[in-house]
Amino acid sequence: GFVTGCFFAPRIVRRAGHVRAFGAFAASGAIVALLTGLIIDEYVWILLRAFTGFTMAGAFMVIESWLNEKATNENRGTVFGLYMMVTYASIMGGQMIVAGGDVKSASLFMITGILFCLSLIPTAVSTASHPKPLQDVSLDVRGLYANSPVSAVACVLIGIANGAWGTLGAVYGARIGISTAEIALMMSLVVVAGAAMQLPAGRLSDKTDRRFVLAGAAFGGAFFALMIFLFEPRSGVFVIVFTAAYGAFAYTLYSIAVAHANDHARSEDFVKVSGGLLLLYGFGTMIGPLLAAALMGWMRPEGLFLATAFAHLCL
């Protein structure tokens, strides 16, 4: 659904404009969330999950292209750092809602629908100028690569690493024997560490070549991933510390890659660039779990970090 959204959502944005398109995506997300709580059927849920991916791809595309139009090359890293900080904080908030909610009732789906509806209010009442109308929204991955090969390749590799960790991080924790509470803390602190580093990394990328910052963060992520793979920590404290350090570097990469790509894009191409990068990232998130799962099965649980280290070293 997410990958499909990257192809078709730009056409909706072109036809309806950024504000109306975002409203359509958010309203659709609310409807899907409520239907998920209303219809308890695994086959229906598969379709609804796919449509959720479609709406999320469209919403992210509108937000990121809108931010890019308002940002300049001098502050784009900071703007996207703040954007990703808010995103990661929201992810943490969602996890806390799930932890405190009743998973046996439809209340969590209702809360999700309410949150989608709340996202409509800022765009509905805002007096800020709307982005320029779009002329061409066809995705052009080859053109995206020609515009910024670093960002295009980076988004695939970042998707591989983040997809592997996001899907199998909890499995890794369970296999090495740490407690459920420690697994939850580990997963949460990775996101917190990544959020905390967004603004410093973004500001640094505004003051120097973003490619250097991207390479430095990728090296940091690879370093801590290899440390976990080589030393095989089993104590909950050490695992949490090492994974948080890994997250501090790994989760800053996407915003810098996006900022770098849009530095070299025309304003009328921001939606195309955003859609293309999300598409490449989405492909990476499909590859990462497969690669990491194979290494974890063939070697040991730390094979997860060998997969992420490989992606970061390639970057």
What does this structure look like?
The chain is mainly alpha-helical. The protein folds into 2 domains: 2-125, no CATH class; 141-314, Growth Hormone, Chain: A, CATH 1.20.1250. It has helices spanning 2-16, 18-38, 42-70, 76-100, 107-118, 120-125, 141-147, 149-176, 180-207, 210-231, 236-250, 253-263, 270-298, 303-314. α1 (2-16) packs across α3, α7 crosses α8 (149-176) and α10 runs antiparallel to α11 (236-250). The longest helix is centred in the first third of the chain and has 29 residues, at 42-70. It is globular and about 55 Å long. The model has no long low-confidence stretch (mean pLDDT 87).
Short description:
With 315 residues, the protein is mostly helical. The chain contains 14 helices and no strands. The protein is globular and about 55 Å long.
What structural keywords apply?
14 helices, 0% strand, Growth Hormone, Chain: A, mainly alpha
Looking at the structure, the CATH topology of the largest domain is Growth Hormone, Chain: A
Please tell me the overall pLDDT.
87
The rough form would be described as: globular
* End-to-end gap: 27 Å
How many separate structural domains?
2
Under the CATH scheme, the architecture of the largest domain is: Up-down Bundle
CATH superfamily of the largest domain: MFS general substrate transporter like domains
**Care to count the β-strands?**
0
Count of alpha and pi helical runs:
14
Biggest sheet, in brief? none
Helical residue percent? over 70%
Q: Give start-end ranges of low-pLDDT stretches.
A: none
- Proportion of beta-strand residues: under 5%
